[in-house]
Amino acid sequence: MKFEVTILGSSSATPIFNRNPTSQALNINERLYLIDCGEGTQQQMLRFDIKASRIDYIFISHLHGDHYLGLVGLLSSLHLNGRTKPLHIFCPAPLKEIIDLQFKYSETTIQYPLEYTFIDPTQPTKLVDNQDIIIESIPLDHRIPCTGFLFRQKKRLRKLIKDKIETIDIPVEYYSRLKKGEDFTDSNGKLYKNDELTLDSERPKAYAYCSDTLFNEAYFNQISGVDLLYHEATFLHNMVDRAVETHHTTALQAAEVAARVKARKLVIGHFSARYKALTELLDEARSIFSETELAIEGKTFVI
Amino acid sequence: MKFEVTILGSSSATPIFNRNPTSQALNINERLYLIDCGEGTQQQMLRFDIKASRIDYIFISHLHGDHYLGLVGLLSSLHLNGRTKPLHIFCPAPLKEIIDLQFKYSETTIQYPLEYTFIDPTQPTKLVDNQDIIIESIPLDHRIPCTGFLFRQKKRLRKLIKDKIETIDIPVEYYSRLKKGEDFTDSNGKLYKNDELTLDSERPKAYAYCSDTLFNEAYFNQISGVDLLYHEATFLHNMVDRAVETHHTTALQAAEVAARVKARKLVIGHFSARYKALTELLDEARSIFSETELAIEGKTFVI
């Protein structure tokens, strides 16, 4: 099952040339989920061939402009392009007021159902639970209410060992029970243990998105053991005072989070515009968590 | 005196790859004026080396998102980059409400004076009158209140003919009177006619920005004889019904406007996303107004 994230924007509040404000597109079993939607996200989707029409869920972490200013334009384009299927937005409650006001003055009546779920930023909450994935909010510690998002794949059914199955007379109707782990006894009373007939499905993977936040142990437990951790790393650690003041994280701290929660891999992003090159940020994080990569526009990470 | 316009965005509501929503930067005697500010305008300024910090005036034609969704991000970046000098925004009144609401929820207090002038969309109004330029609003005919903008250079002072002046004993204090057109009589009573001593300054130029609008004679008189006319041309004329329905103009109609108002040059823009190539739009306009160019991102037109 496909489970991958494409970086659409990696800059913090002030954009720099070729670094866009935050946005990420997740492809989970060919369904698209958008996390944050900074200005220019539409153009980034065009650039990296992410079909906006295929997005059904949008998650907005908080109401700093670099995380949502591309949303009204995107919603409007989907409308103009004839969307009819519902779009679900998970966001801080005031975002609806902002969107409604802008549509009021542009005299726009969106022609598809826009469904909102307002996130309680104070506690982890299950937002989505479908056949593929469970998505929870992660309360973060920023200057204004802010949540990250945790995507946990569901355990899938076991896989039939086709070559083996074909040698036994098993009714097709029984296959779904095999996939769920049941044994099979044939008409002669011969027992086949389930693990002779099926293979375990892949280990369910998890992805945690943590931006923007102060380094704070409060969210560590929830993201324990994730396969991929995206964590903001706005500054180098020599600016840790500034990071604390603005409720951001340094590259070193992001790596410490990854190490502490035993993530398999770390991607850092949300870089301050002061860093034209990102090597120092990467080196700093790798000094304590070697499996670190940079969030670069257009890069796709398989989870 | 420099008087030129750089195209930052040329697309209509739905962006396409490499065509950004509407924005233009005017350089008038090394002062920058921004017209409209579609999403991504900041990135476009970075791309084309337009220094946002040098902008003192922003003009917003109307409240369709493709003309202003980049503004809050721009205002925020100027704030984060330490701007202290005032910024003047000329816009429809509700824009302030939209901006204030977004800054309220991002808990942003802009550290420079943000001065608003709300435009009356029903009649031409003088918005700016400084040493270089007079700027007026142009009432247009769109689905929601919308104005264009007319930039008329002021007539400059006459230029001293240095070689001639140096042969005569003229007090330096008298130079400013010569520049204004006065004659000079020397101590022997000899009269020098002004045109012996000075040259006329360049003819003042004018630029009209007309987007978005239905083809409508009401604004023709105001923009009569402009040196450069930017006019929206959302559709080819085979879609004139759609143009009328959505209160837009076809390429043919834009050219007709240019011909009727005796513009010296026409630039068409605000292209529908349906036109991947723009040749047909250009050819159609040139069929009746040969001095037509396309608004292409990054292109600068000297007025």
UniProtKB/TrEMBL annotation, chains A, B:
Q: Which cofactor does it need?
A: Zn(2+)
Give the UniProt family note.
Answer: Belongs to the RNase Z family.
Q: Which residues bind Zn(2+) 1?
A: H62, H64, H142, D212
UniProtKB keywords: Endonuclease, Hydrolase, Metal-binding, Nuclease, tRNA processing, Zinc
Which residues of this protein are catalytic? D66
In Swiss-Prot or TrEMBL terms, this protein is called Ribonuclease Z
Q: Show the InterPro entries listed in the entry.
A: RibonucZ/Hydroxyglut_hydro, RNase_Z/BN
Q: Pfam families given for it? A: Anti-Pycsar_Apyc1
Q: Which Gene3D superfamilies match?
A: Ribonuclease Z/Hydroxyacylglutathione hydrolase-like (3.60.15.10)
Q: Which organism is it from?
A: Mucilaginibacter boryungensis
Task: Describe the task this protein carries out.
Answer: Zinc phosphodiesterase, which displays some tRNA 3'-processing endonuclease activity. Probably involved in tRNA maturation, by removing a 3'-trailer from precursor tRNA.
- The record's free-text note on cofactor binding: Binds 2 Zn(2+) ions.
PANTHER family per the UniProt record, alphabetical: ZINC PHOSPHODIESTERASE ELAC PROTEIN 1
Q: What's the top EC group for this one?
A: hydrolase
Q: Which residues bind Zn(2+) 2?
A: D66, H67, D212, H270
Query: What EC identifiers does the entry list?
Result: 3.1.26.11
A GO MF term = 3'-tRNA processing endoribonuclease activity
Oligomer and partners: Homodimer.
